Amino acid sequence: MTAEEHAETEDREVAGRRLASSRVLDIDSLLDDPKTRIVVCCGSGGVGKTTTAAALGLRAAERGRKVVVLTIDPARRLAQSMGIDSLDNVPRRVKGTDGTGELHAMMLDMKRTFDEVVEAHADPERAAAILANPFYQSLSAGFAGTQEYMAMEKLGQLRAKEEWDLIVVDTPPSRSALDFLDAPKRLGSFLDGRLIRLLTAPAKLGGRAGMAFLNVGMSMMTGTLGKLLGGQLLKDVQTFVSAMDTTFGGFRTRADATYKLLQAPGTAFLVVAAPERDALREAAYFVERLAAEDMPLVGLVLNRVHGTGAGGLSAERALDAAENLADPGIVDQGGGKAGLRNSPDTCGSSSSPAAEDATGADASDTGSPADQEDQEDQERSVDRLAAGLLRLHAERMHLLAREQRTRDRFTARHPEVAVVDVPALPGDVHDLTGLRDIGDRLAAGAATGRTEPS
User: Fold this and answer.
1) Rounded CA separation 330/323 (Å)
2) Which CATH superfamily is domain 18-305 in?
3) I need a surface site. Which of 103, 222, 299, 398 has the fewest CB within 10 A?
4) pTM over 0.70
5) pLDDT at residue 259 in the model
6) Backbone dihedral region for residue 334 (phi beyond 0: left; psi -120 to 50: alpha; all else: beta)
7) How many CA atoms lie within 13 A of 376 on its CB side?
């Protein structure tokens, strides 16, 4: 087999091979299963995670389920695509859906969720004191891990209400998808940890004993912290932890409960990626970490996969044809050879095709030289256009081959992970029609995979 034939065969295999090297993820079976109560879409930023979550929610609703989509993405694309002016901490009904189900959507308001936790676990007087505390206001607005913890808190609240039979979660855009899982533990450990217990000890002891403890046991530490943080901030911290001691004692308990909920059989994790080296490298890391955490991973959604309608034409043959068109003196003689249209071997010969063409032209040409020139210009324009299209096709075939090689590396490393390919759309998704199209492509990827030979 020649190098050209080998390249042609490889490109044809790349163009025609879809999902043959790995298990296939059946999206509709996942969404239709009444035992599936939570779907968590995780992955790095910029891979279509929010759009995937919205498309899954819409498809599940139009197949009869009552769905709420919780997004933590601050870009607010979800609201725009669902025809809602804005999303907030309250689930909003999405209008325009088909079928018997319902679709609701909401966007996590981190501070409002934190406030709701305070109001739910404290009496009105204590809640007012905590909400007004400067340290609490800073903590609730941007403390490391707060967003991820509040996402878990909100997920626990939604699940406890039993109002929806499916919750789709769009996790925060982070390089480490497991921040969503780790942050609640970190924040819970901080609020229930040794430093907090030390700071709240004087309030617990009370009276002279408490003052003695504060004056003797805390003097060195408070002096050091006062220099580092500032005296007023330290007072705010001490006031905050004293007020929240009984209120937030269950932080770790609730975090652990939600963590176990995510490990339960009714939860399904979907890793979302694009067919790019960095995105699939991170997807592989997510898969391994989820497995280490005993989280129920159901598969990988591979977005923006490119295809071609002319897989039988290899990149090499397309480039050769483009070169032939670009140089009018070159003709394709087949078998990888090229020759000259007006070579000495044929020019002037009465039996040559050129001579016959010339004779025919003399006999039939009735047009003026200007008409002939116009016709030649048109032919050259067509040739240039065709050559450009052939080069574009070659670039597309190279892209397909590169995507497939990247995908193959992932599936070779993780053959146990079911995969669904989602063909790239020509533009962005802005409405429910676009989300339906994504949902159809998710389902069609599974159907294509079932009919593809292994």
Assistant:
1) 8
2) P-loop containing nucleotide triphosphate hydrolases (3.40.50.300)
3) 398
4) yes
5) 85
6) left
7) 8
